[in-house]
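Crash report, auto-generated. Payload:
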Amino acid sequence: MSLTNALPVDAAKAAKSASHTLATLPTSARNDALTAIHVALSQSKEEILAANARDLTAATKAAEDGKLSLSIVSRLDLGKKGKWEDMLKGILDVRELEDPVTLRTRLDEGLDLERVSCPIGVLLIIFEARPEVIANIASLAIKSGNAAILKGGKESTESFVAISRVISAALEATVVPNTAIQLVTTRDVIPQLLALDQYIDLVIPRGSNELVRYIKSSTKIPVLGHADGICSIYLEHTADPEMAVRVIVDSKTSYPAACNSVETLLVETASLETLLPPVAEALLAKGVSLRCDASSKKALTAKLSLHSSVILQDADESDFDTEHLSLTLAIKTVSTVTEAISHINIHGSHHTDAIITSSSPLAEQFMSSVDSAGVFWNTSTRMADGMRFGFGTEVGISTNKIHARGPVGLEGLMIYKYKIRGGGQITAEYGEGSGQRSFKHEKLLF
Amino acid sequence: MSLTNALPVDAAKAAKSASHTLATLPTSARNDALTAIHVALSQSKEEILAANARDLTAATKAAEDGKLSLSIVSRLDLGKKGKWEDMLKGILDVRELEDPVTLRTRLDEGLDLERVSCPIGVLLIIFEARPEVIANIASLAIKSGNAAILKGGKESTESFVAISRVISAALEATVVPNTAIQLVTTRDVIPQLLALDQYIDLVIPRGSNELVRYIKSSTKIPVLGHADGICSIYLEHTADPEMAVRVIVDSKTSYPAACNSVETLLVETASLETLLPPVAEALLAKGVSLRCDASSKKALTAKLSLHSSVILQDADESDFDTEHLSLTLAIKTVSTVTEAISHINIHGSHHTDAIITSSSPLAEQFMSSVDSAGVFWNTSTRMADGMRFGFGTEVGISTNKIHARGPVGLEGLMIYKYKIRGGGQITAEYGEGSGQRSFKHEKLLF
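Recovered output after restart:
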């Protein structure tokens, strides 16, 4: 990894060249580099967390001055319970991943087709806060044989520089080229990088929806990611009440700044007086602001004590199209699963949506018909995560309809090529005519 | 299928709505629709070929007047040997394909993750000639559960209209919505269609590189395809002479207008006087114009009879960056496999490249290092084809580095979603802390 002040075009050229080297390194060499990074980061915990604390102090002040959102401050904190450990564990998990499966077909005797996975080439990762992203991405890029250019947000500069120095020193002792992972710290280079489609093969933005929208509209390079995370939960009347409380509270409060947190609760009319009150009480006890439509407000006001009811807010239409990223939840009443599905397909962001019900047919209908990357039954929307899915770590969560959808791990950073090993076969000898050969198309095992 | 003069936005909206219906139809219903199309097309062969003959007459005249390239005329001909049969066989092959494999992981006891493939949504297919594309695409779209909007070139209007009428009538008797496949025949609608990124999920252009380049630079919708097909063959000195002749002649002459035909022959210096002369003689006998660099021209002039040598042409630099799409082949001398790889990675179009050699290590080096969708050893570049690969048929050949690369069949029209079936599990109960659970990440069989 190198910290570069090079011109974007030179950084991109160097990355392209490094990607060719990286693509031909054996798995063992790439795994050794990951081990080296893990050891080095473990040994430098104190120094990196100190740098992160400096970022956090500055960001907290900026937030107090109204110049930065609290959700960014929250994402910035590398000392947050479990975050450092998850980051380190992610590197080892990635190291253990196997190369994605390929396809093999015998086209004819002595004519074998093989599909082998290979790296995409050069990735451009643009991120705002979340310092752990740098370790996640560096390990996934090295494991998959891609070169990467990382451009971090100014809020987390100290953390990034500290982490990248450690990774850079660790890579020195390996065969991975130093230019394979480059951290660009110069300002205002994003437009220049986005124009380099001859060198950069994929852009992965991680940050606010403004950032992602800007990037998507400013480049011809394919962009992998999501702008919004407007996730919904549909609370059906046969749901187990205790389960409903657990799952909804976890989905809303375990990390409100995350894109997989729930933003809208769709309550079946038949659940308004039975399931909604205990759910609302648990949420209010956790400090969640509830923005209710008329029916849910009426039901809650009747059921809850006056003390609680005074803090119920009225939802307006825009609340159902908003990613609050904070302890705010919009509540809407729907009469059927069909209405819930339709609401989610129109107002959601095709990220992750869940149903809580004890009816298997309703759950299956919901999961088939909701057009989202994640469709969950009786579990938290926050399960949508590469680490929880077993991908080691993730480069982000995609709401794209092509290439990779949902949490993107190693597989999303790979493409494939087709190899054929033949013995002089030509196309003119195959066909339907007399004396012509037919393809066998026999699947071969790996 | 409907032939529509509707506004592009209305066609796109109708397609989106049909895609939701199509996505929930069972496999049997989609297969029945393919059977109906196959029967109907078989019965209407005469009528469709007559329409195609009218297109062909007009195009031939336009070509004579210099208004249309001969390669377009060649692609237009549905009566060309085997083309009609291949088109019909493609429909049945697609019907027999199985839904792409999914992933299943037990995250924890009673918490199962499943990745299921699902259609992308709405495809926009823009094509110039090649009337068979309409049957290929319609069958792949229906099989995969995508809706499709087809916009054909004016050269093949008669053929398209004839084919789409037959398919439309066949679909009437099935449960596939009529708006699932729409043929847009109004002119000048392409810019409007390319702006509809809220309804259209993927654009697949099939036509000249000018068309593809225009489309890629005019839309935010992902584009799948290739602009150029500059394919090369590297002739190494240990190649079997008879095999070299067979493979190179097939790669150049079996269908010169195809994107997978060879355009550049890279001859190892050590092959100049041994292998090149018989190859060149065979090509010249088939009417191929050879554009030679100085070394290859010198070698050929010395070896071949004067009669042949007078028709050797001099190559200029642009010949190695040109897709001739005709009986023209550029010949360049290189000293090593490394020089051949480097030439291909710089001048090729990352489509399909082949090596002819009897050395397995050289072949493996070539296939690993050439950054192309197809890398072949001892077989024709024209093997790069969805039907030959066993995909039934193809929507095109992609040189993209994401989603789908090489011949794109059913799998390239699918994406996936993640389903989780749980029992109330929440993220807060998992972690490294005491009393917390760990994910099992146990792979399940299908």
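Post-recovery validation: The mean pLDDT of chain B is 89.
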